[in-house]
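Proteins fold reproducibly. Look at a sample protein:
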Amino acid sequence: MKTIVATLLLLFCASTLRLTAQDNLMDMIGDTKPATEYAYATFKSTRISLGQSVENPPNGNLIFDVQHHFGPGNIGFNDFFGLDQATTRLGLQYGITDWLAVGVGRSTLEKTVNGSVKIKLLRQSTGEANSPVSISYFGDAALSTLKWADPVRTNYFSSRLSFANQVLIARKLSKALSLQLSPTYIHRNLVEKSTDENDVFAVGAGGRAKLSKRISLNVEYYYVLSAQTAKDYDNSLTVGLDIETGGHVFQLFFTNSQGIIEEHFIPKTTGKWLNGDIHFGFNISRNFVLKKPKEFRD
């Protein structure tokens, strides 16, 4: 009797071990869902150079921006080849969450104050959640604070406002190469001439090619679709370098655009590269961690 009981126990144990091993094997060969892996650092900054990238400040991070464009280099020695003429913007960006960021800034061009929001709608990923691209929305409202050209006439506060809306679509093709398309809609409540367009449509294209661990080559171009604006102005073309040094990202570039915010450089670029209307510019971004991630909190 004892032999029979012992034999049954051994058979039960062996059967249990076999089933457990089969379950573990099924887990190994794909019975469980694969983990999601997200693309990161598609671009090294929240801007490619002038235009926005799909990147946001991380949750709880504050970015202080200094953006500076000198005058065109072909204006001669009297203005020190553009160094005496400059457009500057100081701005702040804050990551409310990892997918939502807000910003505010002030530019010397037209003494403009602007506020923005950027929302991550989709992240490039593989695994359980599979997406070939990252998609973000960027919205901006700008307020010109210049004195009225004709203070006698009836002037409206709304006439000072302009707006930018963009859908940012990017893909990190490899560790060294990223590309982005940026369909854009600009609305200006007041334009200078009756023939000017209040609504301007454009498409931006940009890319980043990594040259070394901390340096990348960036190129971006905005093609204006709206007929009258395209006739009166030029498309914005920018070529530059990203240099990453710890908490700073330096962006050095050459562009035919004097303006810094979207409402200025997309519909109002007047410079021509072939004529030497090239502005040297730079962005300096300093990151401050105001709120630590949960895993690093005390």
Remarks:
- The two ends are 62 Å apart (CA to CA).
- Helices lie at 2-31, 227-232, 262-265.
- Residues 116 and 140 are 4 Å apart (CA to CA).
